[in-house]
């Protein structure tokens, strides 16, 4: 199986559109289409249905997705068995805040060879297995062989359509969101973000609607653009775009500010010099004063390697 085609398939799932996946992979949209077509031919199934809203997974595509991610994880493990040069870091998704943090590190330290992975929920196993060096995570609990360093409090924002009652507000409080429908189909039990939003909802009596299939953020944005009742939540550092006609609003949440506590996680004893440089680079943020964060948000190691 062509792993470049598998990697392209996962990129389309994460981006929601062939064109956006092409941008993320630094290839042409035509190349994306050819790779997906070749993969579908080799598998004998359709993986996507193209709609005006983007690329939507078919049932076969949804079934193949976890195996595709495992194939890419296996590729990383295979590479790790024969080389140790580049620093390999997982960012969960290329449009999320950790990807921006890692890009800023690369721009500040171009001398550090870097490989970027998007392993979703398999990163901890990949760190322990040695196929990647580190991952950005919200620390819930760590095995004894791993360590972590807090790096950023990312504020959570409300995104709603122009007809929503809170669309014109300069900011809202968590209490003002109580009872309102918040659509988050990607929030599933057993993930760190599932644990985060479960406690956030319980703390402020929020209605987190995660039922049904997850067709991607684009479909959620289509829904809230037409609704006066449904909204969603995104991280302030997430790169989210929508058609101009949607006229969506990103509204800060304050009083208190809910923050997603990002940490860098790595395996104890990993002496990769690039990892030390990354940890030093990330040790410059300050916690958001008076913010809301979940009770399980650990206070991980703040020890930063010296420049010597």
Question: Could you give a short description of this structure?
Answer:
This protein has 308 residues and is an alpha/beta fold.
How would you describe this structure to a colleague?
The protein has helices spanning 3-15, 18-25, 29-43, 59-80, 97-108, 123-129, 192-204, 217-225, 273-282, and strands at residues 48-51, 54-57, 87-90, 114-117, 134-137, 146-160, 181-183, 207-209, 230-235, 249-252, 259-267. It has 308 residues and is an alpha/beta fold. The protein contains nine helices and eleven strands. The strands form two sheets. Strands 3, 4, 5, 6, 7, 8, 9, 10 and 11 form a nine-stranded mixed beta sheet that branches. The mean pLDDT is 89. The radius of gyration is 20 Å and the shape is globular.
Write a concise keyword list for the protein shown above:
308 residues, alpha/beta, nine-stranded mixed beta sheet, two-stranded antiparallel sheet, 9 helices, 11 strands, globular
Query: What are the low-pLDDT stretches, counting only 5+ consecutive residues below 50?
Result: none
* Structural classification: alpha/beta
Q: How many helices? A: 9
Total number of strands? 11
Largest sheet: 9 strands, mixed
Taken in chain order, the helices and strands follow as HHHEEHEHEHEEEHEHEEEH
Distance between the termini: 45 Å
Shape: globular
Looking at how many chains there are and whether they match, the oligomeric state comes to single chain
Radius of gyration: 20 Å
Mean pLDDT: 89
* Percent of residues in helices: 25-40%
- Per DSSP, what share of the residues sits in E-state strands of 2 or more residues? 15-25%
């Amino acid at each position: 199986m062509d792993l470049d085609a598998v990697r392209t398939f996962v990129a389309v799932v994460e981006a929601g559109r062939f064109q956006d996946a092409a941008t993320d992979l630094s290839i042409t949209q035509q190349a994306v289409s050819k790779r997906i077509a070749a993969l579908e031919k080799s598998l004998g199934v359709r993986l996507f249905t193209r709609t005006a809203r983007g690329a939507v997974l078919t049932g076969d595509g949804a079934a193949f997705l976890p195996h595709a991610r495992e194939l890419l994880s296996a590729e990383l493990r295979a590479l790790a068995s024969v080389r140790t040069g580049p620093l390999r870091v997982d960012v969960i998704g290329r449009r999320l805040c950790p990807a921006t943090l890692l890009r800023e590190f690369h721009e500040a330290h171009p001398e550090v060879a870097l490989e970027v992975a998007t392993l979703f929920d398999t990163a901890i196993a990949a760190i322990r297995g040695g196929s990647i060096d580190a991952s950005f995570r919200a620390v819930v609990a760590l095995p004894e062989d791993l360590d972590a360093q807090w790096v950023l409090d990312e504020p959570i924002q409300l995104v709603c359509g122009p007809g929503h009652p809170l669309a014109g507000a300069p900011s809202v409080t968590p209490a003002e969101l109580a009872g309102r429908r918040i659509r988050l189909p990607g929030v599933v039990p057993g993930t760190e973000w599932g644990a985060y939003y479960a406690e956030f909802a319980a703390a402020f009596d929020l209605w987190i609607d995660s039922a049904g299939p997850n067709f991607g953020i684009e479909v959620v944005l289509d829904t809230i653009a037409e609704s006066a009742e449904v909204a969603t939540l995104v991280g302030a550092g997430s790169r989210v775009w929508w058609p101009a006609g949607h006229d969506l609003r990103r509204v800060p949440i304050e009083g208190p500010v809910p923050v997603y506590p990002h940490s860098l996680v790595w395996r104890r004893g990993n002496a990769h010099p690039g990892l030390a440089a990354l940890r030093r680079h990330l040790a410059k943020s300050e916690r958001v004063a008076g913010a809301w964060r979940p009770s399980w948000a650990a206070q991980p190691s703040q020890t930063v390697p010296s420049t010597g």
